[in-house]
Design brief:
The chain is built from twelve helices and 14 strands. It has 291 residues and is α+β, with helices and mostly antiparallel strands. A hairpin with a 2-residue loop joins strand 5 and strand 6. Helix 11 packs antiparallel against helix 12.
Length: 291
Protein backbone atom coordinates (compact mmCIF):
# COMPACT_ATOMS: atom_id res chain seq x y z
CA UNK A 1 0.00 0.00 0.00
CA UNK A 2 1.48 3.31 -1.04
CA UNK A 3 1.51 6.43 1.11
CA UNK A 4 -0.43 9.42 -0.15
CA UNK A 5 2.63 11.58 -0.62
CA UNK A 6 4.20 8.90 -2.82
CA UNK A 7 1.26 8.14 -5.10
CA UNK A 8 2.21 7.80 -8.78
CA UNK A 9 -0.95 9.54 -9.97
CA UNK A 10 -1.73 9.33 -13.67
CA UNK A 11 -1.83 13.11 -13.80
CA UNK A 12 1.77 13.19 -12.58
CA UNK A 13 1.07 15.50 -9.69
CA UNK A 14 4.15 16.21 -7.58
CA UNK A 15 3.27 17.87 -4.31
CA UNK A 16 5.82 20.25 -2.89
CA UNK A 17 4.31 20.51 0.56
CA UNK A 18 5.39 18.36 3.46
CA UNK A 19 2.55 16.68 5.32
CA UNK A 20 4.75 16.31 8.35
CA UNK A 21 5.33 20.06 8.54
CA UNK A 22 1.83 21.20 7.66
CA UNK A 23 0.13 18.87 10.12
CA UNK A 24 1.82 20.04 13.30
CA UNK A 25 -0.50 21.77 15.74
CA UNK A 26 -0.08 25.53 15.46
CA UNK A 27 1.41 27.44 18.37
CA UNK A 28 -0.49 30.51 19.42
CA UNK A 29 1.86 33.07 20.85
CA UNK A 30 0.65 35.92 23.03
CA UNK A 31 3.06 38.80 23.63
CA UNK A 32 2.94 40.12 27.17
CA UNK A 33 3.30 43.88 27.48
CA UNK A 34 6.49 45.16 29.08
CA UNK A 35 6.00 46.80 32.44
CA UNK A 36 6.71 50.44 33.19
CA UNK A 37 10.21 49.56 34.42
CA UNK A 38 11.16 48.57 30.88
CA UNK A 39 11.74 44.90 31.63
CA UNK A 40 11.79 42.56 28.62
CA UNK A 41 8.38 41.13 27.86
CA UNK A 42 7.92 37.40 28.26
CA UNK A 43 6.30 35.37 25.50
CA UNK A 44 4.07 32.67 26.96
CA UNK A 45 3.07 30.00 24.44
CA UNK A 46 -0.26 28.21 24.25
CA UNK A 47 0.06 24.70 22.83
CA UNK A 48 -2.92 22.79 21.50
CA UNK A 49 -5.34 22.31 18.64
CA UNK A 50 -5.48 25.71 16.93
CA UNK A 51 -8.55 24.56 14.98
CA UNK A 52 -10.50 24.06 18.20
CA UNK A 53 -9.23 27.44 19.42
CA UNK A 54 -10.46 29.08 16.20
CA UNK A 55 -13.79 27.27 16.48
CA UNK A 56 -14.19 28.68 19.98
CA UNK A 57 -13.49 32.18 18.67
CA UNK A 58 -16.10 31.67 15.94
CA UNK A 59 -18.61 30.40 18.50
CA UNK A 60 -17.94 33.29 20.88
CA UNK A 61 -18.13 35.93 18.14
CA UNK A 62 -21.42 34.59 16.82
CA UNK A 63 -22.77 33.46 20.19
CA UNK A 64 -23.02 29.94 18.80
CA UNK A 65 -23.94 26.96 20.95
CA UNK A 66 -22.62 23.99 18.96
CA UNK A 67 -24.71 21.55 21.00
CA UNK A 68 -27.90 23.20 19.75
CA UNK A 69 -26.91 22.44 16.14
CA UNK A 70 -25.83 18.83 16.61
CA UNK A 71 -27.90 16.09 14.99
CA UNK A 72 -29.36 14.12 17.90
CA UNK A 73 -30.00 11.07 15.70
CA UNK A 74 -26.43 10.96 14.41
CA UNK A 75 -25.07 11.51 17.92
CA UNK A 76 -27.04 8.55 19.26
CA UNK A 77 -25.71 6.31 16.49
CA UNK A 78 -22.13 7.47 17.09
CA UNK A 79 -22.54 6.73 20.80
CA UNK A 80 -23.20 3.11 19.85
CA UNK A 81 -20.53 2.90 17.13
CA UNK A 82 -17.71 4.78 18.86
CA UNK A 83 -18.36 6.13 22.39
CA UNK A 84 -14.95 7.81 22.50
CA UNK A 85 -15.63 9.93 19.41
CA UNK A 86 -19.18 10.60 20.62
CA UNK A 87 -17.80 12.15 23.82
CA UNK A 88 -15.93 14.83 21.84
CA UNK A 89 -17.51 18.17 20.95
CA UNK A 90 -18.95 18.28 17.44
CA UNK A 91 -18.53 21.51 15.50
CA UNK A 92 -18.09 22.94 12.01
CA UNK A 93 -17.80 26.43 10.57
CA UNK A 94 -17.11 28.04 7.22
CA UNK A 95 -13.58 29.07 6.23
CA UNK A 96 -12.42 31.53 3.61
CA UNK A 97 -10.22 29.10 1.70
CA UNK A 98 -9.19 25.43 1.47
CA UNK A 99 -6.72 24.18 4.09
CA UNK A 100 -4.97 20.94 5.00
CA UNK A 101 -7.20 19.01 7.38
CA UNK A 102 -10.18 21.11 6.31
CA UNK A 103 -13.37 20.04 4.57
CA UNK A 104 -14.81 20.65 1.13
CA UNK A 105 -18.56 20.26 0.70
CA UNK A 106 -20.01 20.04 -2.78
CA UNK A 107 -22.19 23.10 -3.27
CA UNK A 108 -25.75 23.02 -4.53
CA UNK A 109 -24.39 24.37 -7.83
CA UNK A 110 -21.48 21.93 -7.85
CA UNK A 111 -22.89 19.46 -10.43
CA UNK A 112 -23.58 22.29 -12.90
CA UNK A 113 -20.23 24.01 -12.29
CA UNK A 114 -18.20 20.79 -12.61
CA UNK A 115 -20.45 19.36 -15.31
CA UNK A 116 -20.79 16.08 -13.41
CA UNK A 117 -22.94 14.74 -10.61
CA UNK A 118 -20.20 12.38 -9.37
CA UNK A 119 -19.54 14.64 -6.39
CA UNK A 120 -23.16 15.37 -5.47
CA UNK A 121 -23.24 16.18 -1.72
CA UNK A 122 -19.67 14.93 -1.32
CA UNK A 123 -17.78 15.82 1.86
CA UNK A 124 -14.03 15.79 1.23
CA UNK A 125 -11.17 15.81 3.73
CA UNK A 126 -8.14 17.65 2.31
CA UNK A 127 -4.99 15.71 3.20
CA UNK A 128 -2.60 17.74 1.03
CA UNK A 129 -2.86 21.32 -0.19
CA UNK A 130 -0.17 23.61 -1.58
CA UNK A 131 0.68 25.70 -4.62
CA UNK A 132 1.61 22.46 -6.41
CA UNK A 133 -1.82 20.91 -5.97
CA UNK A 134 -4.23 19.23 -3.59
CA UNK A 135 -5.34 15.73 -2.59
CA UNK A 136 -8.54 14.81 -0.78
CA UNK A 137 -10.57 11.79 0.34
CA UNK A 138 -14.36 11.67 0.01
CA UNK A 139 -15.62 10.80 3.49
CA UNK A 140 -19.22 9.87 2.68
CA UNK A 141 -19.06 7.44 -0.24
CA UNK A 142 -19.15 3.94 1.31
CA UNK A 143 -19.19 1.18 -1.29
CA UNK A 144 -20.94 -2.16 -1.04
CA UNK A 145 -17.60 -3.94 -0.68
CA UNK A 146 -15.56 -4.94 2.33
CA UNK A 147 -11.77 -5.05 2.52
CA UNK A 148 -11.43 -8.81 2.88
CA UNK A 149 -11.10 -11.13 -0.09
CA UNK A 150 -14.11 -13.30 -0.81
CA UNK A 151 -17.87 -13.07 -0.59
CA UNK A 152 -18.97 -9.48 -0.06
CA UNK A 153 -15.38 -8.30 -0.31
CA UNK A 154 -12.69 -7.57 -2.85
CA UNK A 155 -11.92 -10.08 -5.56
CA UNK A 156 -8.18 -9.46 -5.31
CA UNK A 157 -5.37 -8.95 -2.85
CA UNK A 158 -4.09 -5.39 -2.39
CA UNK A 159 -0.61 -5.04 -3.85
CA UNK A 160 1.87 -3.70 -1.31
CA UNK A 161 -0.45 -4.14 1.68
CA UNK A 162 1.22 -5.32 4.91
CA UNK A 163 0.78 -8.98 5.76
CA UNK A 164 -2.53 -9.73 7.42
CA UNK A 165 -4.20 -6.41 6.62
CA UNK A 166 -7.08 -7.80 4.58
CA UNK A 167 -7.60 -10.59 7.10
CA UNK A 168 -7.54 -8.27 10.13
CA UNK A 169 -9.87 -5.73 8.51
CA UNK A 170 -11.88 -8.21 6.44
CA UNK A 171 -15.21 -6.77 7.62
CA UNK A 172 -14.21 -3.11 7.14
CA UNK A 173 -16.21 -1.20 4.55
CA UNK A 174 -14.31 0.25 1.59
CA UNK A 175 -15.07 3.89 0.75
CA UNK A 176 -14.62 5.51 -2.64
CA UNK A 177 -12.04 8.20 -1.87
CA UNK A 178 -12.14 9.66 -5.37
CA UNK A 179 -11.90 8.87 -9.06
CA UNK A 180 -8.10 8.97 -9.41
CA UNK A 181 -6.08 5.74 -9.02
CA UNK A 182 -8.81 3.59 -7.55
CA UNK A 183 -6.33 0.71 -7.43
CA UNK A 184 -4.52 2.52 -4.60
CA UNK A 185 -5.89 2.22 -1.06
CA UNK A 186 -5.57 4.68 1.84
CA UNK A 187 -6.28 4.38 5.56
CA UNK A 188 -7.70 7.12 7.82
CA UNK A 189 -7.84 6.97 11.62
CA UNK A 190 -7.38 8.86 14.88
CA UNK A 191 -4.31 7.12 16.33
CA UNK A 192 -0.69 8.26 16.43
CA UNK A 193 0.78 5.07 15.00
CA UNK A 194 4.22 4.45 13.56
CA UNK A 195 4.31 5.51 9.92
CA UNK A 196 1.11 7.56 10.15
CA UNK A 197 1.00 11.24 9.17
CA UNK A 198 -1.12 13.76 11.06
CA UNK A 199 -3.16 15.90 8.63
CA UNK A 200 -5.13 17.64 11.38
CA UNK A 201 -4.89 17.39 15.17
CA UNK A 202 -5.86 13.81 16.00
CA UNK A 203 -6.53 12.84 12.37
CA UNK A 204 -4.00 10.56 10.63
CA UNK A 205 -3.44 8.85 7.29
CA UNK A 206 -1.14 5.87 6.76
CA UNK A 207 0.62 3.63 9.25
CA UNK A 208 -0.93 0.47 7.82
CA UNK A 209 1.54 -2.00 9.32
CA UNK A 210 1.14 -0.52 12.80
CA UNK A 211 -2.65 -0.52 12.34
CA UNK A 212 -2.62 -4.25 11.55
CA UNK A 213 -0.52 -4.93 14.63
CA UNK A 214 -2.69 -2.79 16.93
CA UNK A 215 -6.05 -4.01 15.63
CA UNK A 216 -4.90 -7.61 15.26
CA UNK A 217 -3.69 -7.58 18.85
CA UNK A 218 -7.00 -6.23 20.11
CA UNK A 219 -5.52 -2.89 21.20
CA UNK A 220 -7.68 -0.78 18.86
CA UNK A 221 -11.12 -1.75 17.46
CA UNK A 222 -11.07 -2.38 13.72
CA UNK A 223 -13.95 0.05 13.17
CA UNK A 224 -11.66 2.89 14.29
CA UNK A 225 -10.12 2.74 10.80
CA UNK A 226 -11.59 3.84 7.46
CA UNK A 227 -10.28 2.48 4.15
CA UNK A 228 -10.51 4.33 0.84
CA UNK A 229 -9.81 3.33 -2.73
CA UNK A 230 -8.74 6.21 -4.93
CA UNK A 231 -8.52 9.91 -4.13
CA UNK A 232 -9.44 13.32 -5.48
CA UNK A 233 -6.57 15.22 -7.07
CA UNK A 234 -6.25 18.81 -8.24
CA UNK A 235 -3.17 20.18 -10.00
CA UNK A 236 -1.80 23.63 -9.24
CA UNK A 237 -4.60 26.10 -8.53
CA UNK A 238 -7.41 23.93 -9.93
CA UNK A 239 -9.08 23.58 -6.54
CA UNK A 240 -8.98 27.32 -5.83
CA UNK A 241 -10.51 27.94 -9.25
CA UNK A 242 -13.34 25.48 -8.56
CA UNK A 243 -13.99 27.14 -5.19
CA UNK A 244 -14.05 30.57 -6.85
CA UNK A 245 -16.58 29.28 -9.39
CA UNK A 246 -18.83 28.12 -6.56
CA UNK A 247 -18.36 24.35 -6.83
CA UNK A 248 -17.32 23.85 -3.20
CA UNK A 249 -18.02 25.25 0.25
CA UNK A 250 -14.88 25.33 2.41
CA UNK A 251 -15.10 24.49 6.10
CA UNK A 252 -13.32 23.27 9.21
CA UNK A 253 -14.85 20.54 11.32
CA UNK A 254 -14.26 18.51 14.46
CA UNK A 255 -12.32 15.30 14.07
CA UNK A 256 -15.28 13.06 14.90
CA UNK A 257 -16.97 14.27 11.70
CA UNK A 258 -13.94 13.06 9.73
CA UNK A 259 -13.34 9.77 11.52
CA UNK A 260 -16.80 8.33 12.10
CA UNK A 261 -18.21 5.66 9.83
CA UNK A 262 -20.74 7.06 7.35
CA UNK A 263 -22.95 4.00 7.39
CA UNK A 264 -26.73 4.28 7.79
CA UNK A 265 -26.52 7.82 9.14
CA UNK A 266 -30.01 9.13 10.00
CA UNK A 267 -28.89 12.54 8.70
CA UNK A 268 -26.43 12.44 5.75
CA UNK A 269 -23.00 13.86 6.57
CA UNK A 270 -23.39 16.67 4.02
CA UNK A 271 -26.54 17.94 5.73
CA UNK A 272 -25.06 17.42 9.17
CA UNK A 273 -21.98 19.56 8.48
CA UNK A 274 -23.98 22.32 6.76
CA UNK A 275 -26.36 22.39 9.71
CA UNK A 276 -23.46 22.85 12.12
CA UNK A 277 -22.09 25.70 9.97
CA UNK A 278 -25.34 27.62 10.49
CA UNK A 279 -26.71 30.64 8.64
CA UNK A 280 -27.21 30.25 4.89
CA UNK A 281 -25.52 26.84 5.00
CA UNK A 282 -28.07 25.53 7.48
CA UNK A 283 -30.84 26.89 5.26
CA UNK A 284 -29.40 24.98 2.29
CA UNK A 285 -29.40 21.76 4.33
CA UNK A 286 -33.01 22.29 5.44
CA UNK A 287 -34.12 23.08 1.89
CA UNK A 288 -32.51 19.87 0.65
CA UNK A 289 -34.22 17.90 3.41
CA UNK A 290 -37.61 19.19 2.26
CA UNK A 291 -37.02 18.30 -1.41
Amino acid sequence: MQALQQLPYNRKLTLACSLQQSSRSARLRIRAAADDAGEAAETPTLYGDWREFRAKLVADAGKVNWASRVSEENSKLLQVQNPSLASEETWAHATTQPEVGGLLLASSDGPAVLNTDQYWQAVVLLVQHSAAGSVGLILNRPSGLKLGVGRGGLKFGIIGAPAGMQETFAASRVYCGGMVRQDVFHILHGHNLEGAVEVAPGVYVGGEAAAVKAAGGGLIPTDNFKFFCGAMVWEGSELQQEVARGAWYTAAGSRNLCLKQCLQLPKPLWREVLGLMGGDYSAIAKEDELD
